Amino acid sequence: MIERLLDLFLLALLLITSLAAIRLRDLFAVVMLFGIYSLSAAALFMTLDAVDVAFTEAAVGAGITSVLMLATLRLTGRYEQPPTHSPLLPLGVVVTTGAVLIYATLDAPHFGDPTAPAQRQVAAHYLEASAGEVGVPNVVTAVLASYRGYDTLGETLVIFTAGLVVLLLLGIQPLQPHCPTRRPASEQVVLQVIVKMLIPFILLFGAYVQFHGDFGAGGGFQAGVIIATGLVLYDLVFGDGAAQQVVPPRWLPRLAAAGVLLYGGVGVYGLLKGHALLDYRVLASEPLAGQHLGILLVELGVGLTVFTVVLAIFYAFSSRGWR
Amino acid sequence: MSELWAGLSALCLALGSLLCLTGAVGLLRFPDFFTRIHAVGVTDTLATPLLLLGLILQLGWCLDSFKLGLVVVFVLATNPTASHAMAKAALDAGLQPQLPDPPARRQDD
Amino acid sequence: MDLMVLLAGLFNYWVAIVLMMSGFYVVIARGNLVKKLVGLGLFQASVFILYISIGKVQGGHAPILGALIERYSNPLPQVLILTAIVVGVATTAVGLALIVRIRAAYGTVEEAQILAQERAEDAAQAEHPDDPA
Questions:
Q1: ∠ at Cα A64 (A230, A234), nearest 5°?
Q2: Tell me, what CATH number does C118's domain have?
Q3: Interface size between A and C, measured as CB pairs under 8 A
Q4: How far is it, in rounded angstroms, from Cα A35 to Cα B37?
Q5: How does DSSP classify residue A14?
């Protein structure tokens, strides 16, 4: 009962935020509302028992996406022009599509139904067999890294490609030695002191999340985003280009490629040993130990790639705004 | 004994929620950006640790309550800093605080 | 009574569909490119909500194996959506990079103005086909 009320409240919050985001013309406010929308969606995911997804949505949606959108607004302009054409046709299209979709859900199994087709067969097999076949308590990590490891390899490649595309489109300006920082350091004392104390803990937390993904919510994606966010925070507070002195941009494409190669390498090792691609059981003498080692290595590859790509994208956007 | 902890936990949760509510009312009713930041910053910085303390009292001694304690320390450090950053950004962008009108001069001054 | 049961059972999906449609509306009805990308982000997040709602099991626990738990929520939609979230942020970043380049090329990110500039360029080229573009 309480859960349903919480559910309803969060859904209402999402509705209000999205309607406000449609109406406002100040894009800064729209981006902030999008951050609130992401965070409310993350809370909703928690009530729907999806802890890994909530973690990722909070870190990615409310964190990185908001920063990138604000960086874009800095380069393109803050206000939206009033719409030029009548809203009737789009409204008609939207209402018709929505009505068709709602009609389509009338046959769907009710929310939370344990006998729904989605909960049987494959998902039930993963829940029952993963303890014996993979041995990792977090079933989401077991499915992501082992049962559906090939999908995750493709996803890592997509992230790598997106990083390459952004670097091709925007490029990272090299750090000029005489490039003026945003404001003299003496004016930002409070922020610099607090952030200087926080960043080691953020990076430590990122490392914890990377290796804890087997036992609780966590894994390579969240860890990569958290560590990149720590460096983004450093750059935002300590002046333009501060993070580039810590992690030079020329490392980033190579580290990203190294992450993808690590993942692919683990898979190809299985091929070379005469088994299937991404068969982790050949990595150690015992199949379960092999699965653990395989999941560890591929999550490291994913974390490395996500970290470098997110940082590279941030460098590309922020260095574009330097004068 | 456990009833004492449960009662204390309920008190902390209720106080925290009340503070959040008053912060929200302040956010809506105060006239100016800086006063609004002050309302939300102060109340949220106390309300969040109170709510988390209520949850810690319900969990007792375990790893999860230690993690919640770390979150309390984090919030106490970052919430005031965030308010400071917002006010600083607004001031740098040119927003001036809304000051009260000067008192009316008396006739025989 | 039937309608109330239907409403209670399908409410989550309907709200996700309404959110999807609001994101869709922003994409097709607004001219500013950054606003369109925000609308696309709203659409994506609502699709995630729809999928995760399908995986929820009443009385279930998060799919982390524990000793005393007998019923778990479905892990498979969660894996798919985890992938989708990260891919979504990657494509949003590419979209934003394209917008920055469009701004550099056309001086504006409003769709109407960009199309007007394109038409003017095409008209100028049609009149003087020998001039370099």
A1: 25
A2: 1.10.287.3510
A3: 279
A4: 18
A5: H
Residue length, chain B?
Answer: 109
Rounded to whole angstroms, what are the CA distances from A80 to A314, B90, C41?
A: 24, 21, 17
Look up the ipTM and state it. 0.91
C-beta atoms surrounding A30 within 10 Å: 23
pLDDT digits (tens, 9 = 90+) for B33-91: 999 999 999 999 999 999 999 999 998 888 889 999 999 999 999 999 999 999 988 98
Q: Is residue C81 part of a domain?
A: yes
Q: Rounded to the nearest 5°, which phi and psi values hold at B105?
A: -70, 145
C interface test, pick of A3, A13, A34, A53 with most C CB neighbours within 10 Å: A53
Task: Give the SS3 label for residue B74.
Answer: helix
Q: Measured between CB atoms, which of A183, A190, A198 is closest to B84?
A: A190
| Cα separation, A149 vs C83, whole angstroms | 11
Residue C121: give the domain boundaries. 2-57+69-127
CB C22 within 8 A of CB C42: yes
Q: Which of A296, A135, A138, A157 is nearest to A218 (CA)?
A: A138
Contacts of B74 in chain A (CB under 8 A): 198, 201
Q: Do B77 and A191 touch (CB under 8 A)?
A: no
Q: Is residue C123 part of a domain?
A: yes
Distance between CA A144 and CA A53 in Å, rounded?
12
Q: What is the CA angle A214-A66-A45, rounded to 5?
A: 45
| Domain total of chain C | 1
Confirm whether C64 is domain-assigned: no
Confidence at residue A10, expressed as pLDDT on a 0 to 100 scale: 94
The yes/no answer on whether domain A1-80 falls in CATH 3.20.20.80 is no
pLDDT by residue (tens digit) across C24-57?
Answer: 999 999 989 999 999 999 999 999 999 999 888 8
Give the model's confidence band at B14: pLDDT under 50 very low, under 70 low, under 90 confident, else very high: very high
Cα-Cα-Cα-Cα dihedral sign, residues A208, A213, A214, A215: positive
Residue A244 contacts residue A317 (beta carbons within 8 Å) = no
Give me the pLDDT at residue B2, please. 81
**Residue at C63 is within a domain:** no
Pick among A9, A24, A65 to test the C interface (most C CBs inside 10 A): A65
Give the residue carrying structure tokens 């996700």: C16
| Range(s) within chain A of domains with CATH label 1.20.120.1200 | 1-80
Backbone angles phi, psi at A173, to 5 degrees: -70, 135
Q: What is the pTM of this model?
A: 0.91
Residue reference for tokens 């068969």 = A279
